[in-house]
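quick q for whoever's on today - can somebody do inverse folding on this one?? i tried earlier but teh output was garbage lol. tokens:
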């Protein structure tokens, strides 16, 4: 069962999963993404950075100083407010083994009783915990037997397939990095054997490289400086390998969206399937960005895209041309632009659409 399956089990049964895994494999990102996709409020509490009063609330004087009670901590106040709005919460206690014993004892009360200070958690609150294994991070504390016994312990491994699927839905930089890692899987996660190695590749650091690449693609970072940043982020082995690959990527077949829209009948068609796939995503993004605000521009872009995709299809890249053309057609249908879009197409493009419609119909009949 993968991480998301474990979270579904926690949501349905209330048992608390404890995820163990190397730093940087994406534990936090995947848990937060799952919570957001479910529409849940998300709270992350890094226990190594908090003292017991920040986790369970500080004592304050009440009744004119005659007694004291715990104030509601900020994270719990947000959970309670979400519950008032009918929203379920995921509360993620991170770095549990890096927290001192006093904080662990405070957390034990929350896991055991589902009570924070004197305030019960909303009934449907989902609790999750995580930590790095011993030997991977310095200065860890052992969990007590009582605390260990409160969890379903889950060992996590680096999930390249999951990261690739996620990255391909993100930015252009992420899609480029994903293409590299799909070809060079050995560089996805390499935990350093030497403690002097400060930079090393992981899901987290490849995400950082992708974000820096987006800055470079926007023109705000020189290519040389990006190459240096990549080496400084994923290390002296994976960094140069990515830089060499990206050099080839740039020189081999890069075609920009602006080239396609400026000359759809003559713009080059990338040889690399991953570059072509990213270009197709850029076409869809552009039409989607225009369709609600500037229908005329959206129709014009649609027509140019169809001219280019017809050439892609005729050039042998049938699968990507077919899927992208179908998605573009659906955008036009959804926004009531069929008549205008049809008028904007040339005879070759109309014949192309008829051909791919027949291909789809034949495939469905089979």
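ok took a stab at it. sequence:
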């Amino acid at each position: 069962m993968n991480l998301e399956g474990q979270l579904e089990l926690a949501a349905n049964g209330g048992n608390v999963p404890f995820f163990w895994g190397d730093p940087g494999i994406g534990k936090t990102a995947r848990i937060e993404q799952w919570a957001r996709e479910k529409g849940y409020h998300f709270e992350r509490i890094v226990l190594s950075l908090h003292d017991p009063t920040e986790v369970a609330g500080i004592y304050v004087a009440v009744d004119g100083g005659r007694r004291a009670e715990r104030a509601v901590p900020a994270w719990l106040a947000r959970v309670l407010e979400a519950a008032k709005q009918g929203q379920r919460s995921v509360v993620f206690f991170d770095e549990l083994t890096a927290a001192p014993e006093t904080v662990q004892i405070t957390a034990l009360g929350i896991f055991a009783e589902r009570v924070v200070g004197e305030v019960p958690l909303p009934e449907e609150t989902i609790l999750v915990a995580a930590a790095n294994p011993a030997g991977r991070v310095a200065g860890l504390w052992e969990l007590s037997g009582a605390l260990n016994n409160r969890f379903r312990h889950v060992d996590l491994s680096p999930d390249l397939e999951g990261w690739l699927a996620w990255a391909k839905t993100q930015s252009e930089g992420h899609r480029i990095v994903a293409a590299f890692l799909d070809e060079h899987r050995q560089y996805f996660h390499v935990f350093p054997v030497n403690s002097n190695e400060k930079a090393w590749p992981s899901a987290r650091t490849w995400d950082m490289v992708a974000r820096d690449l987006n800055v470079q693609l926007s023109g705000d970072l020189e290519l040389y400086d990006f190459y240096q940043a990549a080496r400084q982020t994923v290390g002296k082995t994976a960094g140069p390998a990515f830089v060499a690959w990206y050099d080839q990527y740039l020189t081999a077949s890069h075609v920009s969206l602006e080239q396609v829209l400026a000359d759809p009948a003559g713009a080059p068609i990338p040889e690399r399937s991953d570059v072509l796939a990213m270009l197709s995503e850029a076409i869809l993004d552009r039409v989607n960005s225009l369709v609600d605000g500037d229908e005329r521009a959206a129709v014009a872009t649609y027509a140019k895209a169809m001219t280019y995709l017809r050439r892609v299809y005729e050039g042998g890249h049938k699968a990507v041309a077919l899927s992208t053309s179908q998605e573009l057609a659906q955008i036009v249908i959804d926004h009531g632009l069929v008549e205008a879009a049809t008028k904007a197409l040339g005879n070759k493009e109309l014949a192309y659409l008829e051909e791919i419609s027949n291909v789809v119909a034949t495939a469905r009949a089979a």
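fwiw The mean pLDDT is 87. also Residues 117 and 146 are 19 Å apart (CA to CA). so keep that in mind when u check it
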